[in-house]
Amino acid sequence: MYVRFDNLGHSFSEDVKVLNNINLEIDASSMAIIGPSGGGKSTLLRVLGGMIYPSEGAFYFDDKKIDFRKNPEWHKKIGFVFQSNGLFPHLTGSQNITMPLTEVFGYSLADAKEMAFELLERFGLEQDGCKFPHQLSGGQQQRIAIARAVASKPKILLLDEPTSALDPEFTSEVLDMVDELRTDGLKIIVVTHHMGFARLSCDKAMFLYGGNVMEVGDSKDFFTSPKNPELQSFLDKILEWN
Ligand SMILES: Nc1ncnc2c1ncn2[C@@H]1O[C@H](COP(=O)(O)OP(=O)(O)OP(=O)(O)O)[C@@H](O)[C@H]1O
Ligand SMILES: [Mg+2]
């Protein structure tokens, strides 16, 4: 995927700029966004996912200007996974997957059930489809949330810290699933604090600090020889106990 930010800026209030007029072009199959709390990572991801309209500028995927207001159909092309799974608590795992397929994407219930079953089976969740979210582990819930996000075959999957609400034992099963989807060719942009995942599974990485993209590049160089001093100290801090 080729992503271009053209003077992309966002403010929630007049005096504070959360995204500071980003100008950038990046060609990546999968990209990690890292950076300290409050740096604007979720805001940027929400702009890309059409949940926030940027107050300035624009962005492009594969040279197409993405304007969710002019073309709401873009919402259907982008899958989004939140930090806490956002599953509907009153629906089973399987119904969580079929509901958007029938209500938003117009599939018949029979087709939607078939699609949900295939996904659940593929990711070892067949036993979990009939359970409600509160009957599932955090890792199972998050994998169902990812299955729901990819069921409609989006062009791009956006994930905002998909493992940060999980116990460490469930983290790798979720990251494995994301990595498998990436290997299959799904384009992925993920906000993560998992530097190992960012380095190994994402070909590009971006450091967002105070609303500015301070560094962006190939993951292997980005993590081994960061140039920006803020990125260096951020990585030192994060990796101190790893
Ligand atoms: N809906 C909102 N209204 C007002 N300010 C907001 C809103 N959402 C975020 N902000 C502010 O924008 C800034 C960036 O927030 P954002 O959530 O994008 O950061 P982040 O990098 O995702 O941080 P974290 O790592 O803690 O998730 C913060 O100062 C935050 O307080
Ligand atoms: Mg965030």
Question: If you had to describe this structure to a student in words, what would you say it looks like?
Answer:
The protein is an alpha/beta fold and 242 residues long. The protein has a domain at 2-88 and 161-239: Rossmann fold (3-Layer(aba) Sandwich). Helices cover 36% and strands 25% of the residues. The protein contains 8 helices and 10 strands. A 6-stranded mixed sheet has the order 6-7-8-3-9-10, with helices on both faces. Strands 2-1-4-5 form a 4-stranded antiparallel sheet, with helices on one face. β1 (2-11) and β2 form a beta hairpin. α2 (93-103) crosses α3 and α3 packs across α4 (138-151). The two termini are 31 Å apart. The mean pLDDT is 95. It binds adenosine-5'-triphosphate and magnesium ion. Residues 41-42, 160 line the site of magnesium ion. Adenosine-5'-triphosphate binds next to α1.
Summary tags:
single chain, 242 residues, alpha/beta, Rossmann fold, six-stranded mixed beta sheet, four-stranded antiparallel beta sheet, 8 helices, globular, binds adenosine-5'-triphosphate, binds magnesium ion
pLDDT averaged over residues: 95
Strand content: 25-35%
CATH architecture of the domain at 2-88 and 161-239: 3-Layer(aba) Sandwich
> Which compounds are bound in this model?
adenosine-5'-triphosphate, magnesium ion
Helix-strand category? alpha/beta
Radius of gyration: 18 Å
Instruction: Going across the biggest sheet, name each strand in turn.
Output: 6-7-8-3-9-10
Task: Predict the CATH topology of the domain at 2-88 and 161-239.
Answer: Rossmann fold
In the predicted model, the low-confidence regions spanning at least 5 consecutive residues are: none
Number of DSSP-assigned strands? 10
Sketch the major β-sheet. 6 strands, mixed
Strand-and-helix sequence, N→C?
A: EEEHEEEHHHEHEHEEHH
